[in-house]
Amino acid sequence: MDVKKGCRIISLSQGRQKIHENYGLWICRTLQKAVFGPREKIHPRSFEFFCLSHMIGGKGWYWSQKTGTVKILEEGQGIISSPGFVQFYSGNKENYIEDSICFTGVIAQNLFRSGIIRDGIINIGKGRRLLPIIDSAADPAMDSQIRANQSLLNLLTDLYFENRNKGKENIESAFETLLRSISEEPGKWWTVKEMAEWCNLSINHFRRLFLARTGLNPKGYVDNLKINKALEFLSDNDASISEIAGRLGYLDQYHFSRRFKEITGFSPLRYRLEFLQPPAKH
Prior knowledge:
Elements: E1 8-10, H1 18-23, E2 26-36, E3 45-47, E4 50-64, E5 70-73, E6 77-81, E7 87-104, H2 106-113, E8 120-123, H3 131-137, H4 142-184, H5 192-198, H6 203-214, H7 218-234, H8 241-247, H9 253-264, H10 268-276
Parallel strand pairs: 1-3
Antiparallel strand pairs: 2-7, 4-5, 4-6, 4-7, 6-8
């Protein structure tokens, strides 16, 4: 997608009450079942406040300047944006329908510093969990404002624990499918960026987790898998060295043979003759 130049800043509105200052949290604006049409271009923007958007209908996509990638949103997912975080989300060929709550204050800042609030996509579910908070926040009475603030704190905390536990399961599942795909597509040269995006992780985080899980860095893992596949393919005497090189994604037989020898100590042909040929009969 094309990214438009510049960044639009959405300013904080007026209307803060004394209770908001004393409490340390202010719900400054809300939207209920708001409909936004599909967009094909990225229009970078940032908020002067925190924003929690819940996609309750339609289809959407999300982009952030930090990752530079576009991710597809599913109904029930949400987006958290902190002040100054450059992002954009919109409808994906259909309308993006949302409930949203924007908020600010020292409590929100502390939640962000502690990691309870994080920028990006979160799972909220298909129930309209923001709606009771939106209804309370619409009443300017002090009791309603206190009730809305407390409910928002409870929701943010619940979402943190739900997504943290789900995130571990998702990462584990993503690793399993990634390793399976690498094995099933031995001719593909995976980049670290592709693998990290598959697992929805930053490159540095992915490298650390990959090493801890496999004992190898991503490039070394792909290299070793290709050579192990080559050992299997070499047992088929009908397959030429050139054909095996092509099946493993090498540009030519020379590059494959050189890499094979670096790892095994033998050229592919020597390995086949030494270890895979049946012993001569006497």
